[in-house]
Design goal:
It is a single chain. The chain has 465 residues and is of the alpha/beta class. Helix 2 packs across helix 3 and helix 12 (227-239) packs across helix 13 (265-277). Helices cover 51% and strands 12% of the residues. The chain has helices at 2-17, 24-36, 38-47, 56-69, 80-90, 98-105, 115-144, 148-165, 178-187, 191-194, 202-208, 227-239, 265-277, 281-286, 291-305, 319-332, 356-374, 386-390, 405-409, 422-426; strands spanning 216-221, 256-260, 309-312, 337-341, 378-383, 412-418, 432-441, 447-454, 459-462.
Amino acid sequence: MAARAKNTEKRSVLATTRRMPHNLDAEQAVLGCMLIDNNAAIYIIQELNKNCFFTEAHQIIFEAMENVLSRPDVNTTLDVITLTDELERMGQLQLAGGVQYISSLASIVPTSANFKKHAEIVKSKSMLRRIIETCSYAVEQAYENEDAERVLANAESALYDINKEQERNELIKVKELTVPVLKKLDELKDPAFRAGISTGYVGIDNMLNGLHPSDLILLAARPGVGKTALAMNIMSNIALNVNRKIVNGQKPKLHCAVFSLEMSKEQLMQRLICSVGGVSMTNAAKGALSAEEWNKVFAATKILDECELYIDDSSYIRPQDILNKCLRMRKERGLDVVMIDYLQLITPNKDRFDTRAQEVADITRFLKITAKELNVPILLLSQLSRKSEERKSAPQLSDLRESGAIEQDADIVLFIHRAKKDEEIVSSSEPQDIDLIVAKHRNGRTGKIKLIYKGEHVRFYDAIE
């Protein structure tokens, strides 16, 4: 054991004494191009930041260049004189190498023709340094922290951030968008292309036109009204190809991820079996299934075994953890839709916020960005505020619990409303009339959708008009 420890220490020393990746010639070339070509300078400050440079002097010089280029006077240009003046104002001219070094940078390159290539080299070396720093920190955490999953999640998150920072969305002339948009409009003539992912409910699909990639869909209701039941019905419908349009002669399987922070995966699976099989939850809970119901159970499990529905029942999970797990699933299996049950149980990415409303706002904003990054719809369940429970009327947007940011970030807000009191419904085995209220629809109409709920089967159905 002692010999092993000694070797480990040796590797650690070697790792910390190796010189970090950098290219001083490329850094000087970038700064030189910026001094002789203001158009190149404007491009470069959008691609790099001062931390991309290895030496402190180059970091200071780049920061001063940014300051000069950000002045409100549009006639101000970046050159040796304006740069030197800014460095003197900052009190860092000598730290930057002095006037002689600043002047030498302007003659480092004869032309700015290769400024993009020089910038790419600087950026690449900066990325390598950050990767080393991130992995080194993960190693330290692995030695000091016994929670392996947390160390892995933090490392994945940091590496993902490094990767995303390299992506830049440029301004695009509208002419370049004409062809793809015309193609999209032509495809929309075909209902199979027009609709998003079918929920399996005709009423919902008619109102929402299905679930669309990058949308954050909020499903909220009072406790015990059926949020989880409806959401799981939708997810199982999607996974089982219910009402799916046939494209190119087939119905491709869709991959669904469910994050359940409240119920265990076993509880959800029991609900799924009863829902798909049309089996009484009461009988199942009491161990009183009839022979006929057992046949339905076996038939339901056979159907569910074939679908691409995945459940994660981690009780402690952050939005970043959800993103990391979804990225892995997308890479390994594919990913088409995500469900999260429910918002108020999610742990924020950061440790401290002044208010719970700020926490929720940070979570919903991150989840909206996640939906966009993954290019999948996210069905997010949420509780309503206590005020809504005191009223007998239907929920409204102001009832969203703890944050107005929920309404702002969500593309669609749905409320489940029952006319009868909850206790009357829970104790009743009769089908119940339900209003699914579309309170917000960023790209479409709002209104009410009629559904029927059969509590015994934990199943919602389209209402027959």
